[in-house]
Every structure is written in C-alpha cells, then in structure tokens.
Amino acid sequence: MKLTLNKNNLAEQPEQLMRRAGYILITDRLSGKSSYARPFSQLHYPRFHVYLKHEGDNLIIDLHLDQKKPGYQGQARHNAEYDGEVVTGEIARLQGLVGLPRNVLYNATAPVAPAVPAARPAGNPLGHGKIEDHLPVEKKTSWWKKICS
User: Do 3 and 108 form a contact (C-beta atoms < 8 A)?
Assistant: First the structure.
C-alpha cells in the first residue's frame, strides 16, 4: 500500500519521521538499496517494510508486511501482504504521526479501502485485536501436554 505525502507539509525530514515511527534503516547487501523495517518482536520477521520514494514535492511511502524471509538462497520473493487490515492500520498510524486524521486514508492506494477503526485497544501497537491474531505462527501444543492427555 502506498501513502503519498507532500514534503512541504512535513515538520521533519522523511528519515527522521521513519525513526520516530519506530523503523530502522536497512540496506540490502546484494543490491545496496536502502529501506526501513519495523519488526513485531526481536525476531526479524514478521515486520513492516517500507521503501521511500521522492517524486518532486511528494514523498511516497510504499509499505508492506513481510511474513517471512525468502525460503531459498538467491530467491528474492517472500510472503508479503500489500493490503489488508494490518497494513491499513499501519498506514493510519503513520498518517497520525504526520498530523493527518487516522480515520480517513489520504492518497493511499490499495485494491480495497477497508474502514480503519478510530480507537485502538490498549497495549496493541497495531490497533486491531490481539497481535497473535495477525501473526502467521500456529500455536503448538507442547510434547508434555500431548503425553499427559
């Protein structure tokens, strides 16, 4: 999903905005291309992944959710979500950081424009239910519980 912002309306540099939003600068070792990532935990995946693009007076924030890293060496493709409730919620959070209302998507491009909830539950950085509901990890039963049951 892409979010287009006018650089003249920003109170800070785009790089500072991304740091304030919790993103870290990463550089691809093979291509040398820089981007920003915001992992959900201490693990590298899942994470929000952002490419910044400067076009005249506009800053385009191209955001997607990386579910996991590529499975094979040399493979660039991976499981990613480019739209949906979690991605829309992150775009709304970024809009709130630059001073735009969160309940309306401004200049965001996506195949579907789902509604964004106005209020966020306490303790959840995504603002939509439990974080566990959005992670692609299956809950596993411990081997001890399997033996005892």
Answer: yes
Residue with tokens 């929000």: 48
Q: Is the pLDDT of residue 145 over 60?
A: yes
How many independent structural domains does the chain possess? Answer: 1
Domain span at residue 123 reads 2-148
Q: What per-residue confidence (pLDDT) applies to 120?
A: 47
E strands along the chain, which residues?
Answer: 2-6, 24-27, 34-39, 47-55, 58-66, 80-81, 108-109
Question: Which pTM does this prediction carry?
Answer: 0.64
- Residue 67's pLDDT is 86
Q: β-strand 2-6 against 47-55: which pairing, if any?
A: unpaired
